[in-house]
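Homework help board

Subject: predicted structure for assignment chain

Our instructor gave us this sequence and asked us to write out the predicted structure in token form, then describe one feature. I got the tokens but I'm not sure how to describe them. Can anyone check?
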Amino acid sequence: MDARKTTLKEKEALALVREVDEIYAGKGKRVVYLDLKKDKPDKAALLAVLLGPTGNLRAPTLRRGRTLLVGFDEAAYAKVLK
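My token output:
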């Protein structure tokens, strides 16, 4: 999916979360890791890492298997894509 042509809002972003087991979200200089099998973050916590200031799913977003990468962090991408 090309994020320039298709934007995902809150409802679609939360639907995407139901299909994954873990999330890596680059937030500035840090990475937020959520293990959805162990942790049960609430809706507000999920939306805080998934959505940008426009209310759309943050870019870049990549799904590999049951892992979701949101935002960009070189180390997270290297770990998941190895």
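Reply (TA_rk): Your tokens look well-formed. For the description, you could write something like this. DSSP finds three helices and four strands in the chain. That's the kind of observation they're looking for.
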